[in-house]
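In this supplementary section we document a worked example of the pipeline. Step one takes a protein sequence of length 95 as its only input; no multiple sequence alignment statistics are reported here. Step two produces a three-dimensional model, which step three serialises into structure tokens for compact storage. The input and output of this example are shown verbatim.
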Amino acid sequence: MKNTTAKLNKDQVTITMSLEQYTKLLTLTNKTKDAMYDISETYDLRLSDVQNLDTLSWFLRMSMGFEKNPDSDYYNADLVLPKFKIAKITKKENK
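The serialised model returned by step three reads:
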């Protein structure tokens, strides 16, 4: 996941990733789409679908640099944007 960068500039984000990571993101997105289709048609969820959803969640977290909310002690806390990157942008805007 080290090849992915997310550059934050005011109200824009530019994400750069390798073609391999981009392809993996597409594959995981399609697996999620298939799982959601099955859920809507049968109201059932296979364990492999749960695994695919978990893998997509992990991949997005790692590749996009999202972090667990440091203000929460809850194990399954929401993810947040990295504070150090947001802080740098805020300081630039205030100059």
